[in-house]
Specification:
The complex is a heterodimer of chains A (about 90) and B (about 160). Chain A has about 90 residues and is of the alpha/beta class. In chain A, about 40% of the residues lie in helices and about 15% in strands. The termini of chain A are far apart. By secondary structure, chain B is an alpha/beta fold. In chain B, the strands form 2 sheets. In chain B, strands 1, 3, 5, 6 and 7 form a 5-stranded mixed β-sheet that branches. Chain B has a two-stranded antiparallel sheet with strand order 2-4. Classes of the chains: A alpha/beta (about 90), B alpha/beta (about 160). Chains A and B meet through helix 1, strand 1 and helix 3 of A and helix 1, strand 1, helix 2, helix 3 and helix 4 of B. Strand 1 of chain A pairs parallel with strand 7 of chain B.
Chain lengths: ~90, ~160
């Protein structure tokens, strides 16, 4: 994904990405990225959790203006919610 | 690429390729020149999403699949499918927005967070053991289409 991001930025269009693989992103060096500790297949947050999904998008978009150093990777604080267990 | 290549050899080859690419190109940089609320926002995903009626990605090909699908921004979420062998689809099958937040993006567009979503969205699949064909063909092609469509900024996300 970072390689596609680099190609778009090289065309003169600003980009920002979300990554779950910080090590790979460090090597690919896209211009602006946010790292999130969510499981693979859970990129934007849990199913039907509109609030988290929305916050993640808004946080990542904020990087278009807040990041001014090429190659920056910012860690987001979101935590995958624990499954609610039925009371026993 | 030899079919007898081990995982270690493949990782080392990809690592060398990335190092050479970054050394040659540096880190590309294009500053945002207007407020987000006035931007046409593009969306590019590598979650292996395709629309019913489009050919799925070839998730089983050991060479990877560097093709892409164009997904109109008004596509109903119920018409999206996943072809990606390298992540657990359980959550995305309950709610496609988990990996491809098409409904969240339309809501933010309606709220005016950005001026407009560019259409189509572009979707690749994530497992690409040889990055060279992607870099030399389809990534370039999609980047040129995005530029030609006068997109102001692009959000990218993985599967």
């Amino acid at each position: 994904m970072g390689l596609i991001q680099r190609a778009i930025e090289r065309e003169g269009v600003p980009t920002v990405s979300l990554t779950l693989l910080r090590g790979l992103t460090l090597r690919v060096k896209p211009p602006r990225a946010f790292f999130l500790r969510f499981p693979f297949g859970g990129t934007f947050g849990p199913p039907s959790n509109r609030q988290i999904q929305r916050h993640v998008i808004l946080d990542v978009l904020s990087g278009l203006t807040s990041i001014d150093e090429p190659g920056t990777i910012v860690e987001l604080p979101h935590v995958w919610p624990e499954e609610k267990k039925p009371a026993s | 690429m030899s079919s007898a290549e081990s995982r270690e050899e493949r990782n080392a080859r990809v690592q060398r390729y990335l190092e050479e690419l970054v050394a040659a190109e540096g880190i590309p940089w294009a500053p945002l020149t207007k407020p987000l609320a006035r931007c046409r926002l593009g969306f590019v995903s590598t979650a292996g999403i395709y629309q019913v009626g489009q050919p799925p990605f070839d998730a089983s090909n050991p060479q990877g699949d560097w093709s892409y699908r164009e997904i109109p921004k008004d596509t109903p979420a119920s018409e999206l499918r996943i072809a990606h062998a390298h992540y657990d689809h359980t959550n995305a099958e309950k709610d496609i927005n988990v990996v491809f937040p098409i409904e969240r993006l339309r809501e933010l567009e309606a709220e005016g967070v950005f001026a407009e979503l560019a259409s189509p969205f572009y979707c690749f699949t994530g497992f690409i053991p040889d990055p060279r064909p992607l870099v030399e063909t389809t990534a370039k092609e999609v980047a040129a289409k995005i530029r030609a469509a006068e997109v102001d900024a692009v959000l990218l996300s993985p599967g």
